[in-house]
Amino acid sequence: MLKWDELPQEMQLSEVKPYYQLVSRRKGSLIFKRCLDLFLAVVLLILTSPLFLILSIWIKLDSKGPVIYKQVRVTQYNRHFKIWKFRTMVTDADKKGSLVTSANDSRITKVGISFDVFVWMNCRNWLMSSKVRCPLWELVQKYHATQSSIALK
Q1: Which has fewest Cβ within 10 Å: 18, 57, 95, 136?
Q2: R_g of the chain computed on alpha carbons
Q3: Which residues, 6+ apart, have CB-to-CB distance to 4 below 8 Å?
């Protein structure tokens, strides 16, 4: 953990200092929590790996292309990160149409349709309560460009 003086200047605020002091007193419990998180992540990965294997085979049999789709997303603080997910659309779908999908998008594979139905039937309450979704960097750029052109008018 960085010392207070080593933090970026914009974080060295009087509002942040009490939280920083609280966190620095609880280093041991934070290390324990991190170890527990990693342990549980490994256990869950092992338990779900048969499901991942079946899904991977299903995707490979359904359509050509890689099983995993990689994409760069952006957080609300403009931090870029990579997301890896099972491919539910045709290969190069982002080059063949809009960056946003619609209900009857022809780029969605059979696996994608089945997976969407499964998720909707089993996770809709959780999905509706979690409002945060990290957008694509291209969409953020288009939004900023639109906002700039509106501001210039």
Answers
A1: 95
A2: 21
A3: 12, 17, 20
Contacts of 20 (CB under 8 A, 6+ apart): 4, 7
Distance of alpha carbon 63 from alpha carbon 57, whole angstroms = 10
Statement: the pTM of the whole predicted model exceeds 0.70:
no
How many helices, marked H, and strands, marked E, lie in the chain? 5, 2
Cβ atoms of residues 73 and 136 within 8 Å: yes
Asked whether the beta carbons of 83 and 73 are under 8 A apart, the reply is: yes
| Contact (CB, 8 A) for 109 and 90 | yes
Token pair 């060295």: residue: 12
Judged against a pLDDT cut of 80, whether residue 130 lies above it is answered with no
Mean pLDDT computed over 45-55: 92
Distance between CA atoms of residues 94 and 23, nearest Å = 42
Calculate the CA 62 to chain-centre distance: 24
Strand partners of residue 99: none
State the Cα–Cα distance between residues 133 and 127, nearest whole angstrom. 10
Q: What is the pLDDT of residues 54-81, one digit of tens each?
A: 988 988 888 888 888 888 888 777 788 8
